[in-house]
Design a protein that fits this description.
The chain contains twelve helices and no strands. With 220 residues, the protein is an all-alpha fold.
């Protein structure tokens, strides 16, 4: 196992991250919980920018579960066909709309344990939804969060669930509502997979990543 951050280093990192991203915001564009849930489902293996390109047309016709069911699965598929895995995502959206309309009166449950029983909703989707919709202290572990936890030596794990479990233990409760979105923004724009922009990093002083040491060696 690689050397991980010490407790003191983690505390310094969380403070630096919060200072850098005091009010992190999800970059998906939506106006109600159903639109958010559809956008989250569509964003798997697809960039938020691409999702935001197609959702205005989708939301005009399917802004609620009932509207989604009314336009039919084929119309939903036609509206989202430019995203990756659009067939699977179409089925997930339509099946979820059916359950939400039939069992919950068209309102998406705001309870994690209930959400993960619904079709197409796993732990990450439920966590992201509750975190973004209600600023609830849920930590959704996407590819950015998973990658940065390893690169920055916050914690390690073979699966996202391993990282999620450790983050709930390692992140102070006051930071938990913002940590996932902050790490996503850091990973998306600064701590990129191939070429991290260390010179622009707002948490550079709290970083203990090996790649930082490598980049420092290359400086004149």
């Amino acid at each position: 196992m690689p050397d991980l951050m010490t407790d003191a280093q983690r505390n310094r990192f969380w403070q630096a991250l919060q200072a850098a991203y005091p009010q992190p915001a999800c970059e998906l564009i939506f106006s109600n919980p159903w639109e958010l849930m559809m956008a989250i489902i569509l964003s798997a293996q697809t960039t938020d920018k691409q999702v935001n390109r197609i959702t205005p047309a989708l939301f005009r016709e399917a802004s609620t579960p009932d509207q989604t069911l009314a336009i039919g699965m084929e119309r939903v598929r036609a509206l989202v066909k430019s995203v990756n895995y659009f067939n699977n995502k179409t089925r997930a959206i339509f099946n979820l709309a059916q359950v939400v309309a039939d069992r919950f009166g068209g309102q998406i449950p705001a309870d994690f344990d209930t959400l993960i029983t619904l079709p197409g909703i796993g732990r990450k989707t439920a966590s992201v939804f509750l975190n973004v919709a209600y600023h609830a202290p849920f930590i959704g572990v996407d590819t950015h969060v998973f990658r940065l936890c390893h690169r920055l030596k916050i914690c390690v794990g073979k699966k996202p669930e391993d990282i999620e479990r450790q983050l709930y233990r390692l992140v102070p409760k006051d930071y938990q509502a913002d940590v996932a979105l902050s790490l996503v923004l850091l990973g998306r724009y600064i701590c990129k997979a191939a070429k991290p922009l260390c010179a622009q990093c707002p948490v550079y002083g709290a970083c203990v990543a090996d790649i930082k040491a490598d980049i420092k060696k290359d400086k004149p």
